[in-house]
Amino acid sequence: MPERFWNRRWNGRWYLLMYDVPERERRYRNVLNRFLTRMRMGSLQKSVFVSVHDIRPLFYDLDVAAAVAEYANLFEAQTVQGQSDAAVAARAWDFDRLREQQSKYLDACQARTRRPTAPLSLPDVMAALRSELAGYREALAGDPLLPKALWPSDYLGPQVAAMFRRRMRRLIGRMIGWQA
């Protein structure tokens, strides 16, 4: 349900996590980078991550679990001197890669939709549902789920979500119509 993130009111504040992990702790730094990326935070620089969501609870948890405060600082900020929030978002997240990923999903769904619909057994429908969910999750994996105010003009997220719902309704309809 990405709409719950897209439709949130945004207060215009960025939450910046900046850290300096020594080279001898490279493994810690790499794990931290992967974790922050998984949390849908954007990377402004190698050691500067940004979010539109209040990440103070996350920072607290990271400090308790991994002593991140030894290396990191958390700031709440706004852009200054005319730099737009959309420009910050464009720098922090790879929207070109995301668009490519989401276009691939939409194209694959369109191709499946054009195929003739032969009767499927219940196990086949269940496998198709799992496959559809996996494709959808992959299409949204790199999506930061930003508020609408920060979307690039060619953002495909809403089309991906709508396509997924159509595909699921169609497959569930086939499952409901399945007879033993």
Structural class, from helix and strand content? alpha+beta
Euclidean distance between termini CA atoms: 32 Å
The count of DSSP E runs of length 2 or more, i.e. the number of strands, is 4
Poorly predicted sequence stretches spanning 5 or more consecutive residues:
none
Q: Count of DSSP helices?
A: 7
C-alpha-based Rg, rounded:
20 Å
List the helices and strands and how they pair.
Elements: H1 3-6, E1 14-19, H2 26-38, E2 42-45, E3 48-51, H3 56-66, E4 72-77, H4 85-92, H5 95-114, H6 122-140, H7 157-176
Antiparallel strand pairs: 1-3, 1-4, 2-3
Helix pairs in contact: 5-6, 5-7, 6-7
List keywords for this structure.
four-stranded antiparallel beta sheet; elongated; 180 residues; alpha+beta; 7 helices; single chain
